[in-house]
Amino acid sequence: MANKLEAFYGLPQEVKFCKKCIISNQRPSSTVEFKNSKDLKKEVINFDENDVCSACSYHEEKEKQVDWSEREKNLEELLSRFRRTDGRYDVIIPGSGGKDSAFTAHILKYKYGMNPLTVTWSPHLYTDIGWKNMQEWMHTGGLDNMLYTPNGKLHRLLTKLSFENMLHPFQPFIVGQKIIGPMMAQKFGVKLVMYGENQAEYGNKVDQNTHSVMNPEFFSITDPLEMQFGGVSMKEIIDNYEFTINDFTPYIPPKLDTLVDAGVEMHYLGYYLQWDPQECYYYAVENTGFTANTERTEGSYSKYSSLDDKIDTFHYFTTLIKFGIGRATYDASQEVRNDKITREEAAYLVKKYDTEFPKKYFKEFLDYVSITEEKFWEIVDRHRSPHIWKNVDGEWKLRHTANNDGTDD
């Protein structure tokens, strides 16, 4: 019966769960689209013949096949090509001051002798703990930072369009996150941009794990006016709202040939150093004043990941609606791979927390995107894929969970 149900977004009709972690085969392998509609064909995480996901396979490969001492030598060789001793910055590190960017910036400065400039694309709405950790990043971690805040009026509109049309309120934010590093590298004449871990480690395109360099495809946009935000082109937004192309300056990626000509390289530190998010957390606590939240994050059991933005919980809630994968699934799958918890423990945590609605900042989210609660639920329910969700006596329930490995209906 389930195989006959319509699957939105080009997702696989048969829902499977990884036999090692608990991620499902519905997880998209890319995070930014400039297209629209529930008919959008998505690439999803790969499963092998044993129903093991590519993220778990890659983690096992890292554990058994990668020579990490050799990788660190490669890192030192890379850094030596860019290191400066004349007072100028020599590496740009995009981040929010969370555990991963805190680790990246601090270790590059204090262990490897680099002179980093950290750059931050501002969250939609800072949380108290997010702002505190952001400040500690500089004042305790001893780092320089530039906080870049885009046109708030435009950013609200783009977020609203992305939520209404794609159920993807983070789309404009992700665009900014990707652009801010290379953009500031150009501004300051820095030739190295260093990110933390590659999202390929969690299930994005697996071939990205074979090298340290960021996929340049994002910087190959030829006509900015054709870029789409929430399925609406930049040209349409300019024609229908009181904005000009100049207002979109922060969202227009630097051209790839310009970056190449300037000698700018974009690398992932997680390629060179064995990456463990929980160990990054311990390092950040000890060295940069990072603190976990006093309460767990809604939709998960975690207290130390993605704490800075009040909209963040709604990003994960929308992935739950579209793909049946909530925040607890992402957190628990990662911790299974890093041997922090067992698969059975992960399944329990997901059952308990994954479908929890993020109530804490709900009113602020509605105000930010200027919609009513009734409109919110209309948009959410419109994006539920029939092969993932069923309505039982007026209550929406997932058809498949990791606890039953896809045998429920």
CATH fold category name of one domain: Rossmann fold
Please bin the fraction of helical residues: 40-55%
Give me the secondary-structure category.
Answer: mainly alpha
Q: Gap between N and C termini, in Å?
A: 8 Å
CATH architectural grouping of one domain: 3-Layer(aba) Sandwich
What does the model show?
This protein has 409 residues and is mainly alpha-helical. The chain has a domain at 68-272: Rossmann fold (3-Layer(aba) Sandwich), CATH 3.40.50. It has 15 helices and 9 strands. The protein has helices at residues 54-64, 68-82, 99-110, 128-139, 152-166, 171-188, 234-240, 256-261, 269-272, 277-288, 312-323, 327-337, 343-353, 362-369, 373-382; strands spanning 91-94, 116-121, 144-148, 192-195, 228-229, 232-233, 265-268, 389-392, 395-398. The strands form 4 sheets. It has a 3-stranded parallel β-sheet, sandwiched between helices. Strands 4-7 form a two-stranded parallel ribbon. The protein has a two-stranded antiparallel sheet with strand order 5-6. β8 and β9 (395-398) form a beta hairpin. The chain is globular, with a radius of gyration of 21 Å. The N and C termini lie close together (8 Å). The model is unreliable at 32-40 (pLDDT under 50).
